[in-house]
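Quick one: co-fold with pyridoxal-5'-phosphate.
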Amino acid sequence: MRDFAAELEQRREAGLYRVRRQMSGPHQPLLTADGDPVLAFCSNDYLGLASHPELVAAATSGLDEHGLGGASSHLICGHHGEHHRLEDKLAAFTRRSGALFFSTGYMANVGVITALAGKGDTIFSDALNHASIIDGCRLSGASVRIYPHGDTATLAEQLAATEGHKLVVTDGVFSMDGDIAPLRELATLCRRHDALLVVDDAHGFGCIGPQGRGAVLEAGLTEDNVPLVVGTLGKAFGTSGAFVAGPPLLLDYLVQKARSYIYTTAMPPALATASCRSVELVEQDEHRRTHLTRLINRFRSEAATMGYDLMPSATPIQPIMIGDPREAIRLSGELEKRGLLVTAIRPPTVPHGESRLRVTFSASHTDEQLDQLLAALRESAPKIVADRALSSV
Ligand SMILES: *Cc1c(COP(=O)(O)O)cnc(C)c1O
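Sure, here it is.
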């Protein structure tokens, strides 16, 4: 048998071992982690809706009215009116013909990619795409061509050199860098080379675009240019589940062929009830996005003056680049000593040599909480920056 214990030990030595902290209480910036109070800057609850009383109330009334369990898959008897109502709302929210509700974003990506490309086809995938896209590509049996991050010139060459059915897939907002894909160029290329474009905007929906309608609409693109968008409800929407939105033909095709849609139990209808309310809050409450933008801008201008290496991101994802995974853990530890929870992101989630602290902001952070983060970063900065200078000589 393989020496699993030795492999884990190697991981530990390389600074790549992962642990789970146990949280208690509702999700919000002030959490209890393993029994200690912490101020967290690492969740994806970008609009602070995860514990919003109106969503909790909607879920509670959904439970009273519709019970708890999903009971079966959507194609047997699990497709509830509440799921359908949510799909209609998501279609309207994304300004698309229709939407299909999946259990998770992971399953949506795997389902969409494996259904729409297979043996003999070619998938073109950005080098920094999310793991669920990578897994969908691998499972599909199609040949996969990775293009360098955001590099539309290389993608154009690859597309021109390829025959047959082509699918291009990209994150909208990239989950670990926080930058946005060159969507207009991608849409133009896909049209020119008759390729199907799929954009996974898990981190864009709720945060960017008009009324939070995402990166594709922000770029002025519609269903005509970008046939399919994928979104999760587990991030800015503050609930759980995911969706694919686009034209009826493709959605119908997915209902017939996406195995991660077909062979799983439908989510609790009450969750859809809460998500319906969440879509309304996301659309209506502009003040959350305004506050979030202010926090992001303040953080960027102040952290940069401390010598930290930031990425060109205007989204709530604000990585502090470190490089070595052990150094990333050390800075994360320095912050934790000061009561802050900011997780170190290491390979294989990011490329080797690109370990980082992934700082994320939520509309539920106050200015005082941002001050706390900045003060802790200021105290930890001299050491980190000096160490970086040393390791580069
Ligand atoms: C989080 C994420 C997903 C997965 O969504 P879940 O609903 O959490 O499974 C998919 N794509 C991207 C880009 C993500 O960041």
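If it helps, The radius of gyration is 21 Å.
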